[in-house]
Each structure stands twice: as C-alpha cells, then as structure tokens.
C-alpha cells in the first residue's frame, strides 16, 4: 500500500480528499476539530487520530484542508516540531500573501511546504474534471505527485507559494463574473416572462462559443498594442449603452453591467475609442511590465 498520509480537516472537501487517498491504497490518518465527521472514512479503512499531532506523527505527507488561513495556523502552530522534516500540502483556500506567509513560517520550522488550490467541488475529487494547482516546494510536488494525482490533475506553477492561489482566485474571478453575467441576462428576459431555464438553453452555447475566442485577446493584452480593424471601443460603447438602456427599461438593476460600461467609457474618454475592447485591461492592471 502507498505511504501513510494525514488529512487534517474533515469538512466536505477534507472528507473527499481522504476518500481519494484511501481508494488509491494509502494508509490514511484523519483528524477533525469536532469529532463525528470521520465515521464513514473509518468504515472505509482510515484511522481516526485522537489529536492532529497523532495523525501527523503517523505520516510522511500531511494534507491540510481547513476553513481559512487563521484555522491553518490554529492547527499547525502547536505542531511545528512534529511537522519538521515532513511534507505539508495545504489545500485550504488562502490568499496568495497568506500562502507566502505560511511558506515562510514552514521554512523557519524546517517544514517542506507546498500550497495548492482546488479547482473542483467535493464530489468531483478523484474524478475527471478535477484539477488542482500547486506552488511552493518542488521537492514535495515531485516526491508526492502520484498521491496528489489521486485527487485530480496536478499542475505545478513554481517555487512562489502564492502562485497557485493567485491562479485559483484569478480563475474564480472569471467564473464569478461569468455567472453574474448570466444572472443579468436572466433578469432581462424575466421582464418578458422567459424562465432562466429557457434562457440557459441559449446562454450555455453562446458563452461556450465566446470563451473559445479568449486566446484572440491575449496578444493585445500581453503586448499593450490594442490596434484593431474589427470591433472598436466606440462600437462596444454603443452596444453596452444600448444594453444599459434595455436593462433599465426592463426594470433590471445595473449593478452587474455598470462597471463594464464604466471601464469602456473611461477608455473612450481617454481617446482610445478606435482601439479594441481588450484595452479595458489598461484601466485595471497593476503597474507590472508586460510578460
Ligand atoms: P467546511 O466548512 O465543510 O469545513 C471546514 C473545516 O475547517 C471543518 O473541518 C472545520 O472543523 C475546520 N475548521 C474551521 N475552523 C477551524 C479551526 N479554527 N481549527 C480547526 N479546524 C477548523 O469546508 P470545506 O471542506 O468545503 O472547505 C475546506 C477548504 O477547501 C476551504 O478553504 C475551501 O475554500 C476549500 N475549497 C472548498 C471547495 C468546495 O467546493 N467545498 C472547493 C475548493 C476549495 P469543524 O468540523 O470542527 O468545524
């Protein structure tokens, strides 16, 4: 059987991770702050540890999946000495700087630290479509890749422990804004009595097709050259202004669409109306040089 793994945190996600390791043939020691969440895992072959330290000491690899950055410190700080020389893979959602802080904390205590972001829901873990992003210790990633792959695809982004989280949150931003855009459209058609289900039949293929055009925008964003002979910001302004009027007429709140209009308006006001829509990137980007 595979090497022993500790799973700290048995929320919906931690339980799914522990199951995937068990199915992969690992010995798994599980721990949760509040007892009672380990029952099914123990029936499936896991060992219930009385304390987090007990789980850690039984393992080489320690997988952490708690609520947030604070809870990770709450659980790991008292265990620093036990964790020294062991590998910690933290799959708790933390902001990039929180992941970097945890990596620095781990380094001070001689702990090998790999941070990860889970691009999946608990039922997806260990199934096709589950993707996990990692950054931090390359040694931990390489040594434990087979175990990590039991949860989903495993991609490594580099030694900066904050990178996986940065990608994770950047992808989630795209997701949230896409869902928000769908709800705006659903609110518009509601004014004509059209159901969200009916609207989704059109929205899914449309959004899917549009997503395929994303790579066409990347050259402009990466180079800063927004010259276009297709749709200009002047054109986009006319279109979005019309959508705003239509939304208002339909009694739909402008909270979702207004920021998009504001970004376009700013570029047009600054004299960039002949350039491409992607120029709105210039209105929000950090002052970091192009890649
Ligand atoms: P749950 O709310 O189901 O579980 C939270 C876990 O954190 C519980 O085990 C809870 O223990 C524990 N916890 C909270 N605070 C503390 C603390 N101070 N000390 C010790 N343990 C603590 O969340 P999930 O399992 O769904 O999510 C866990 C992590 O995975 C989160 O960071 C989440 O963002 C991330 N994630 C979740 C996804 C999902 O779809 N669910 C998707 C991608 C990432 P107790 O039972 O004692 O309260």
What does this structure look like?
The protein is an alpha/beta fold. The protein has two domains: 2-158, Rossmann fold; 167-283, Orthogonal Bundle (N-(1-d-carboxylethyl)-l-norvaline Dehydrogenase, domain 2), CATH 1.10.1040.10. Helices cover 49% and strands 14% of the residues. It has twelve helices and eight strands. The chain has helices at 12-23, 39-43, 52-57, 69-76, 80-83, 96-108, 138-148, 163-190, 196-211, 214-223, 233-249, 258-269, and strands at 2-8, 26-31, 47-48, 61-64, 87-90, 112-119, 131-136, 153-156. Strands 3-2-1-4-5-6-7-8 form an eight-stranded mixed sheet, sandwiched between helices. Helix 8 crosses helix 9 (196-211) and helix 11 packs antiparallel against helix 12. The two termini are 44 Å apart. 35% of the residues are buried. The mean pLDDT is 97. The structure holds NADPH dihydro-nicotinamide-adenine-dinucleotide phosphate (NDP). The site of NADPH dihydro-nicotinamide-adenine-dinucleotide phosphate has 22 residues, from helix 1 and helix 4. NADPH dihydro-nicotinamide-adenine-dinucleotide phosphate (NDP) is lined by residues 9-14, 32-34, 37, 65-68, 71, 74-75, 92-93, 118, 121-122.
């Amino acid at each position: 059987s595979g090497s022993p793994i500790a799973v700290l945190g048995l929320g919906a996600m931690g339980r799914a991770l522990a199951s995937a390791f068990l199915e992969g043939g690992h010995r798994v020691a599980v721990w949760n702050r509040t007892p009672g969440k380990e029952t099914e895992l123990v029936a499936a072959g896991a060992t219930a540890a009385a304390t987090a330290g007990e789980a850690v000491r039984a393992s080489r690899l320690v997988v952490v999946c708690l609520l947030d950055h604070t809870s990770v410190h709450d659980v790991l700080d008292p265990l620093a000495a036990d964790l020294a020389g062991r590998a910690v893979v933290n799959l708790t959602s933390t902001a990039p700087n929180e992941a970097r802080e945890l990596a620095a904390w781990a380094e001070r205590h001689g702990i090998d630290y790999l941070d990860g972001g889970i691009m999946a829901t608990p039922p997806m873990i260990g199934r096709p479509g589950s993707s996990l992003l990692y950054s931090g210790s390359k040694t931990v990633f390489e040594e434990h890749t087979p175990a990590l792959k039991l949860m989903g695809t495993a991609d490594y982004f580099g030694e900066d422990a904050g990178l996986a989280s940065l990608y994770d949150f950047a992808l989630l931003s795209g997701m949230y804004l896409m869902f928000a855009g769908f709800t705006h459209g659903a609110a518009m058609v509601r004014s004509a009595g059209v159901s969200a289900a009916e609207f989704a039949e059109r929205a899914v293929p449309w959004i899917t097709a549009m997503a395929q055009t994303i790579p066409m925008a990347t050259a402009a964003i990466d180079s800063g050259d927004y010259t276009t002979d297709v749709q200009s910001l002047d054109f986009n302004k006319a279109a979005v202004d019309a959508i705003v009027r239509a939304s208002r007429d339909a009694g739909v709140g402008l909270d979702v669409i207004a920021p998009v209009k504001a970004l376009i308006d700013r570029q047009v006001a600054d004299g960039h109306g002949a350039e491409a829509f992607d120029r709105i990137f210039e209105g929000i980007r950090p002052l970091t040089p192009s890649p």
